[in-house]
Amino acid sequence: MAKSFLAFCSILFIFMHMILSSVVGPPRWWPPHGKFKVKCPYKKVSLKWYKGTADPCPGLYQPICGTNFVTYDNPCILCIESLKSEGKIKFYRDGKC
Predict the structure, then answer these.
(1) How far apart (Å, rounded) are the C-alpha atoms in residues 7 and 55?
(2) Mean pLDDT, to the nearest integer, of 77-94?
(3) What is the C-alpha to C-alpha distance for residues 73 and 32, in angstroms, rounded to an integer?
(4) Predicted confidence (pLDDT) per residue in 22-38, tens digit
(5) 3-state helix, strand and coil shares in percent for the chain, rounded to the nearest 5
(6) Which one is predicted more confidently, 16 or 46?
(7) Does 4 reside within a domain?
(8) How many distinct structural domains can be found in the chain?
């Protein structure tokens, strides 16, 4: 009885993991390579009302290219711009555009 319950729980855990990963999708860390990475929550947070510029990572220079072909000084600034554009601007590639 205990072994079948354990097997049932294991199968249930694997099944739930498969469902949740297909709904949520794989994690998107920017940039995929580099010393500093950011997971930008553009689907959950909207900063379109914010018109200013912000650098939540001052002193960090790690050039990163956005899908709008603008080079940002670091992934944090790209994340802020992504939140302001409601996800229209995303990570394109490491380095300058």
Answers:
(1) 49
(2) 90
(3) 16
(4) 444 455 677 777 777 88
(5) 35, 15, 55
(6) 46
(7) no
(8) 1
